Amino acid sequence: MTITPVRLSCTRGPLISAEGLNGVGKTYLTNRAVEALDDKPLMLDEFSQRANGRPGLGEALLRSLREASAGDPFLRGGTPMTEALILMAIKRHDLDTVLPELSSGRAVVEGRSVDTTAVCQALLLHPDDPDAALETATALLDLASSYRPLPDLTILVTDDTSEALVRAQRRDRCVFTNEQAAFMRKACQLFERLAATDPARYRVVDRRSVDEHEATEQIRAWIQDADGDLGCMMEPWQGPGAPCMCCGHRAAVESV
Ligand SMILES: [Zn+2]
Fold it and tell me: Are 159 and 169 in contact (CB under 8 A)?
């Protein structure tokens, strides 16, 4: 006998993430796109924009990663799997904090979500094997999806890595080392390959082929369209028949 939950239509808002390398302009473009929307989504800052001192467990976990990585811009402290689990816990914490907004029907846009963790930590585990890194990134996303539901929609902003490096260095007033620049190049390729594995969830803005205005318009349309037919959001670890985290409905279970 196979038990499958019957998909319900939910009153919740869509959970959207904006992903991409440092310096691709994802925050800038997403903020501009949102300006043109009547119903503003809740914007959740990405890791690098969170100043020290904001209270909360997510920030405390992030601070511990910062301290352990001694200022590395990619939070690399030498134990990639431990870091992956802490990063997933931070993203679970983010979801917990936005559940009331999602439940009220409002869209939520996360600056970076579990895809960043999957890409960066997979690269650390397989620095010289792009195929193994892709396989591991996919497996890490599966692991992340047992902590919390994946975003309904993930917008990947990508660009030539050299352009992204220039922007990131200007913004952060730093000079990346050759090793850090090489890490970004590999991350750029892995992000693009990972996005291609799940076209239903990912939308890709490639700044090598669209200008700023077109990119903003694409992102605006995607965020607006995401508020369509959304299913209920279940706790991944509770199994079929669990109540929706947003509307509380239990899916009817079909036995075949
Ligand atoms: Zn629901």
Answer: no
Q: How far is ligand 1, taken at its centre, from the CA of residue 106, in Å?
A: 13
Weakly modelled stretches of the chain, pLDDT under 70: 1-8, 46-55, 252-256
CB neighbour list of residue 12: distance below 8 Å, 6 or more residues apart: 102, 103, 105, 230, 232, 233, 244, 246, 247
CA of 247 to the centre of ligand 1 (A): 4
Q: Give the distance (Å) from ligand 1 centre to CA of residue 237.
A: 16
| Of the options 3.10.25.10, 3.30.450.20, 3.40.50.300, 3.30.565.10, the CATH number for the domain spanning 3-255 | 3.40.50.300
What digits encode the pLDDT tens for the residues 69-114?
A: 998 989 999 999 999 999 999 999 999 999 999 999 999 999 999 9
CA-based nearest residue to 128, from 190, 84, 73, 68: 190
In the reported structure, the alpha carbon of residue 67 is separated from the centroid of ligand 1 by a whole-number distance in angstroms of 39
